[in-house]
Amino acid sequence: MKPISTLISSKIQFAGERTCENCGGKVPIIQRDGKEYSHCLACDNKTLEKEMEDFRKKSEAEAFFWNNSLVPSDTEDATFDNYHPKNESQKDAFDKAKWYADNFKELLEKGEWDSLLFQGSYGIGKSHLSHSVAMLLKQKQYKVIFADTPMLMKKIQSTYGNYKESQITIFENIAKADLFILDDVGAEYVKSKDGEESWAVDTLFSIIGSRVDKPNIFTTNYDSDGLRKKYGMHGGRIVSRMMKGTKPIKMTGDDYRVKGW
Ligand SMILES: Nc1ncnc2c1ncn2[C@@H]1O[C@H](COP(=O)(O)OP(=O)(O)O)[C@@H](O)[C@H]1O
Ligand SMILES: [Mg+2]
Ligand SMILES: [Zn+2]
Q1: Residue 12 Cα, ligand 3 centroid: separation in angstroms?
Q2: What are phi and psi of 229, to 5 degrees?
Q3: Ligand 1 pocket test target in 128, 130, 148 with most atoms within 8 Å of CB
Q4: Domain spans, the chain
């Protein structure tokens, strides 16, 4: 600690002005104990404002994701870092998914295409890669939703009757997301007991309709014929809406969950 006497004797003096190299404003130079100090308060404030704005946007993107997403428990931790491709098709899918996430902004500016579809059998990393894209774009402050199709249908169904408001909110948020991931399309239960098409097809039809010409990632075990058949009367239209501006990525491999593989 400095003795009191030196504190008292330390002199603070106005020692002139400089031009801030950053904003061009005039900045006072202060002299204290023979040393010069000079801070541009305008620039300091701008930096602070930008940091606060970044923080606000990041929190908003986090909240949007957590409030609207339905992620299967075995996918929650999936990122590009913990994906290990087991064959060429998985390596190719990884590269494309990573490229998509890295070039998302430029891709949308170009406006030629905007969406991906991962197709292939189960347990080969379709959900894993989609979730990885979600994590990367959420970090870049985009509003992202990851929704497992069966879970989403159940959630919407549970809002029928009593909670009209929350149902509207679900649809509104899906429509306004920067990226909407609809995972495992076709895994939801569609037919009623007597084989009638249920409300689920209509619901899916309007959800996908609200996302035409916006960035989406779909994943499915079905090929396009299989999906068309599953959705009956609406099948052709659902698939054609899904495929508008969408690059299909075919994946193959054995179920990652099966032990010993
Ligand atoms: N190549 C991989 N590297 C690391 N984990 C994987 C890989 N493929 C699948 N998994 C993991 O195995 C489980 C099943 O994969 P998932 O992405 O759900 O398959 P799909 O959606 O194709 O059915 C998940 O927990 C996922 O994280
Ligand atoms: Mg899946
Ligand atoms: Zn300045």
Answers
A1: 22
A2: -65, -45
A3: 128
A4: 12-57, 69-250
For residue 191, the model assigns a pLDDT of: 62
Q: How much is the pLDDT for 158?
A: 84
Residue spans of alpha helices (H) in the chain = 4-9, 41-68, 88-102, 104-110, 126-139, 149-158, 164-176, 199-209, 224-230, 235-243
> What pLDDT, on a 0 to 100 scale, did the predictor assign at position 7?
54
Q: Report the atom number in ligand 1 closest to the C-alpha of 118.
A: 22
Which CATH architecture describes the domain 69-250?
A: 3-Layer(aba) Sandwich (3.40)
**Residue in 211, 210, 204 with CA at minimum distance from that of residue 232:** 204
Residue the block writes with tokens 């801030």: 20
Q: What is the pLDDT of residue 258?
A: 82
Index of the ligand 1 atom closest to the CA of residue 72: 18
| Closest ligand to residue 185's CA | 2
Residue ranges in the chain modelled with pLDDT below 70:
1-10, 161-165, 190-197, 259-261
- N-terminal to C-terminal alpha carbon distance within the chain: 65
CA of 29 to the centre of ligand 3 (A): 13
Pocket of ligand 1 (CB under 6 A): 74-75, 78, 82-86, 90, 122-128, 219, 256-257
* 122-174 per-position pLDDT tens digit: 999 999 999 999 999 999 999 999 999 999 998 988 887 666 668 889 999 99
